[in-house]
Amino acid sequence: MRRIVLFLTAMMFVAAVQAYDVVIVGGTPGGIMTAVAAAREGKTSVLLERTSHVGGLPANGLGATDIATRGATTGLFREFTQRVKRYYIGKYGEDSQQVKDCSDGFHFGLRSRKRFLQICSMSIVIKLVCLQSGSLMPIPRM
């Protein structure tokens, strides 16, 4: 209950400091993509995360998607997988084992949360606010 109260307090604090078109609760890949979509529509947004683990499972250990029908992948997720593949090509070379292992961007071992967020942010600034130990903690811009 204490965390919920603190989180709601953080949301009110953010709203009082600056006005946003969209307030996103949850720093998961879905939250990040929501911020990207809002920015592409010309909207301002703030992404609130109650922990310091921004990026959800992909940024914190899970490096493979479970999509069986890759041909149905579209939109921002498809853009993300293409960026993952380009990252591996740029870092290791087009014919490298790492590029083959990334399976067209659907499998990745991005060990750094910062790298994951850079790939997710897709060249826009996402304002992130984390609530950790009862205090607001701004995340540095990528």
What would a concise description of this structure say?
Helix content is 45%, strand content 13%.
Outline the structure in words:
The structure is a single chain. The chain has 142 residues and is of the alpha/beta class. Helix content is 45%, strand content 13%. It has helices at residues 2-17, 29-40, 56-59, 75-92, 97-101, 113-121, and strands at residues 22-25, 45-49, 127-132, 135-138. The chain has a 4-stranded mixed sheet, sandwiched between helices. Helix 2 (29-40) links the parallel strand 1 (22-25) and strand 2. It is elongated. Mean pLDDT is 74; it is low at 132-142.
Give the topology, please:
Blueprint: H1 2-17, E1 22-25, H2 29-40, E2 45-49, H3 56-59, H4 75-92, H5 97-101, H6 113-121, E3 127-132, E4 135-138
Parallel strand pairs: 1-2, 2-3
Antiparallel strand pairs: 3-4
Structural class: alpha/beta
Chain-averaged pLDDT = 74
Q: How much β-strand is present in the residues?
A: 5-15%
Reading side by side through the largest sheet, how are the strands ordered?
Answer: 1-2-3-4
Radius of gyration: 16 Å
Oligomer: single chain
Helix run count? 6
Q: Compute the number of strand runs.
A: 4
| N-to-C SSE string, H for helix and E for strand | HEHEHHHHEE
Query: Low-confidence parts, pLDDT < 50 over ≥5 residues?
Result: 132-142
Described by strand count, sense and barrel closure, the largest sheet is: 4 strands, mixed
Helix amount: 40-55%
Q: Based on CA inertia axes, which overall geometry fits?
A: elongated
CA distance, first residue to last residue: 32 Å
